[in-house]
Amino acid sequence: MSLNTDFWVTDNTAPGAGYRYAVSKVLVWKKTNFQDLAIVDTPVFGRALLLDGNWQSSVSDEFLYHEPLVHPAMLWHGKPRKVAILGGGEGATLREVLRWKTVDKAVMVDLDGEVVEACKTHLPEMHQGSFGDLRAELVIGDARDWLQATDEKYDVVISDLSEPLEHGPAYELFTKEYFLKVREVLKPDGYLALQAGSVAPQEIDLFARVCNTVAAVFEHARPYASMIPSFAAPWGFVLASSQSLDSLPDPNSTDRTIAELVGGTLRMLDGEALHGLFMVSGHVRRAIERESRVYTIDHPPQR
Amino acid sequence: MSLNTDFWVTDNTAPGAGYRYAVSKVLVWKKTNFQDLAIVDTPVFGRALLLDGNWQSSVSDEFLYHEPLVHPAMLWHGKPRKVAILGGGEGATLREVLRWKTVDKAVMVDLDGEVVEACKTHLPEMHQGSFGDLRAELVIGDARDWLQATDEKYDVVISDLSEPLEHGPAYELFTKEYFLKVREVLKPDGYLALQAGSVAPQEIDLFARVCNTVAAVFEHARPYASMIPSFAAPWGFVLASSQSLDSLPDPNSTDRTIAELVGGTLRMLDGEALHGLFMVSGHVRRAIERESRVYTIDHPPQR
Amino acid sequence: MSLNTDFWVTDNTAPGAGYRYAVSKVLVWKKTNFQDLAIVDTPVFGRALLLDGNWQSSVSDEFLYHEPLVHPAMLWHGKPRKVAILGGGEGATLREVLRWKTVDKAVMVDLDGEVVEACKTHLPEMHQGSFGDLRAELVIGDARDWLQATDEKYDVVISDLSEPLEHGPAYELFTKEYFLKVREVLKPDGYLALQAGSVAPQEIDLFARVCNTVAAVFEHARPYASMIPSFAAPWGFVLASSQSLDSLPDPNSTDRTIAELVGGTLRMLDGEALHGLFMVSGHVRRAIERESRVYTIDHPPQR
Amino acid sequence: MSLNTDFWVTDNTAPGAGYRYAVSKVLVWKKTNFQDLAIVDTPVFGRALLLDGNWQSSVSDEFLYHEPLVHPAMLWHGKPRKVAILGGGEGATLREVLRWKTVDKAVMVDLDGEVVEACKTHLPEMHQGSFGDLRAELVIGDARDWLQATDEKYDVVISDLSEPLEHGPAYELFTKEYFLKVREVLKPDGYLALQAGSVAPQEIDLFARVCNTVAAVFEHARPYASMIPSFAAPWGFVLASSQSLDSLPDPNSTDRTIAELVGGTLRMLDGEALHGLFMVSGHVRRAIERESRVYTIDHPPQR
């Protein structure tokens, strides 16, 4: 059933630019305690989640976001057992984490229970039943409180929070203080992966500053990027650890690990693709080298 | 000077999706003998060229298109002397070719002289004076006629034509017959590079078919992709040759070649970035493996 | 509660022009058996009804449509007792009819029961409880069938059907055959009033043809127009009867009739405003004079 | 020649609503010393003038604005000889004034000579050569300075200035001080007509305040309104004089005056249409009655 009304959502990627999507159905559109939540059907990108009017993910290309977000940290670790996800409302990050047979506990901490509930109901392609997996634990609450309170240590932490540009609830979760807290819950051989915003030339300074902030806390930090069509921009991530990140795993070895520990293949990520993600362009590396500022609670990201 | 009128161009990336750009100045907007030509200033992406309403390039991120288009073929060859560019209206492809000190002749063949003239006048950041370089030769005419007529052989041919999806003048230039003609003007150790359209999941089949068509003509063909924000999509290219393309050059060796033969550095492309471009995602490689169709004059690309 | 998502509806008033409305809430959006139905909140025009993507009415300015649609026919008659409304989904036409103390029966015949039910629930400002009035009778069905079947005669018939331009369910209800049926259910001193589309210069020929079609059936027909901001166009109506329509009632006498028979005042329509509605511009009258075509079942309105 | 680029102008009629027009050609788009000036071709409304992004007039429906602006004041006067136009860039107001054979002098005072020059060149359908009429005198300058300096008295003054809502150059020309100056240059039996903004329900208070401000200066003031499709709103005007405006001229007498003194007929305005313009809706009259505020230099119109 497709509806004829000429309904459009515009994701304003910058003042003076926006990506318009026709909408064929509005499944959810409400104010939660924290943000505006919308789940809509779009003819071009399939069902999609929007928070405060900003596109979060769509079923047609979320794998280009969630596989790069999750698997590099898992692969670098090799045998992740305990994983924490900060944010991750749709459940697709949890889904990718739980693909790993090695994982016996995956905690997902999201501020907004109404978003999670709506995704459970309306985005089954995203979570694919992950919330019902016995290894999964869902905590509704502030990631900072949870980091403070937990007394367990984790192999991998995935920070899957709304982009820092907006004045949403994730506003202070890209600061040095936050990453210090994340480091405390990681085991010595643990890894942090986070989404870190657009690497389009107009916005690369923000990404560079997030990289620099992570590098102020972790001994090793490495940027990488994936192309996500519905974001209308190349998207940046950071992998960080106290372990060295200098050498990329051999493609064949990555393929074998995935076959063995994940079982089968992933959609976009394999040994070759991992190189593609981490061998980033010169202009991105130079923007990070140039950058000296660090985000703190007193000087958080702003538009 | 920025103008207040609420003027927008929409690049309709698909039925039901479009990228909207505010426009602050219209420098050229006219019908040529072949297409609609517009050169506009946009606050977000800087000055931009549009043909038939389709975004071609903008000064803010054209380097993410033109460096990947030109340099991989040049690097694989190692010492390109004679280069042919098919299409390439803005002159930015020519600019990148002429960076190579080894080049002593660069022929650019574009159908639409009015586009080239307008770019000469209004897009100096793009061509940077390349049209006046003594090694450059500009031919206004049909690429197929030129391929037929030329009796020289080339080290590198760059096919920089409007995307095959549209019913523009480049409509039949993504067919087997066309690539056969290109092969004839290449030396035995020559290389072809071409832009080949979006690799977004919704459009990847078209890209896969272009790859397959090139592979039907050349012994070796290899896809690669670059993220171009103003295209709102990851963009695909193909490198082809009768020489093997299996091994990627060592990053340090690439950096040395660029330093020596180009002089200085490029903006995005270096040894590491070259790996990033060519180590493509699994879903792209599988789309190409699945594909069996070949475009011909009788069965050209269509929407 | 206003939602931040950048959600817009565009009512395409013509190819190449459209009125865009921000939407702050979607109350209903579904396919009925006949058309797409949407009820939305808009910050500019308040709550609004859309059918097949076409704006029908909004609470902020519906009185500029419904008062001119209903009261001229009622006033010309003087003491209307039995009134039939063909169409009229929101119940606002019914509301205006029932203001008349003289009315003891108002039948409303609408094709689409789902539209009526949704309006009952979500547009109480429109119907103001009219559906519960003991004098009101709601028939869900085709206006043509009802006209065929009814054996009563009416003082006033109000045709409040979606505009003939669209391929909606009202497609054939602006034809000579239809108006002949309407005439049969009117008493000899009865009056027909109908909405008849935009009188903007670009669309005036359609309005003129509807006028001409009505005039082919009724001895007397008179066009009039009201300015409705949310329609982005001046809107045309036709009053028709076998009684003379030549002289306009004196303003004071109209004001007295309204005070006495309606009780109180209306929002826009009074003795002076009635003159304003019926003293139409020269270019509208001349467009009607020029027009010779008549819509029939075999030659219905089309775009 | 129509161009394919998907170029749109949006006239933002309110926050949350806008009228979008496809543009097929940009003839002029520049910053003058006072404002942004654009003249564009639109497929729906024909060639149009925009100032600071606000739609001023289009060739398809400007007669619905300019005839009501000019002729009522002229008709009430009966034999206007000297007429002053304040504003009126396109020359269409001048054109209507010069239709009157009785006129022997028409002064047009516009602030922005670049707008006038561009209209002379690109909008011949608007001015129809009026600027070359020997009875016309064009003054480039501030209307207030001209009012101060002139020592002649006028039969009719037409105030045709950009709407007061915007922060354009006409910002203070809707104040009591301004209307006092206008009164001084009018003969005792002179008439002022001015455009006074939208009478849509959302904006009617502004119109009511302009009416009230005029009525604070002139003994008699009377509102009227015309429907202008490309404005997406009904449009308000005020006629003012120290002469009584109570009785509307008999339609036949108006038609005779037009036939005799103008020669031929006008497009929209005749004896009947004049009644239609001045017999305004009850809600408009009541909004004016309710209004007590007066705009002054110290309290000018603002959004």
Q: Your description of this structure?
A:
Chain A has 303 residues and is of the alpha/beta class. The first copy, chain A, has two domains: 47 residues, Spermidine synthase, tetramerisation domain (Spermidine Synthase, Chain: A, domain 2), CATH 2.30.140; 228 residues, Rossmann fold (3-Layer(aba) Sandwich), CATH 3.40.50.150. Helix content of chain A is 31%, strand content 31%. In chain A, the strands form three sheets. Chain A has a seven-stranded mixed beta sheet with strand order 9-8-7-10-11-13-12. In chain A, strands 3-4-5-6 form a four-stranded antiparallel beta sheet, covered by helices on one side. A two-stranded antiparallel ribbon of chain A has the order 1-2. In chain A, strand 12 and strand 13 form a beta hairpin. In chain A, helix 8 crosses helix 9. The first copy, chain A, is globular and about 55 Å long. Chain A starts with 6 loop residues before the first strand and ends in a 13-residue tail after the last helix. The model of chain A has no long low-confidence stretch (mean pLDDT 92). Chains in contact: A-B, A-C, B-D, C-D. At the B-D interface, strand 1 and strand 3 of B face strand 1 and strand 3 of D. Strand 1 of chain B pairs antiparallel with strand 1 of chain D, so a sheet runs across the interface.
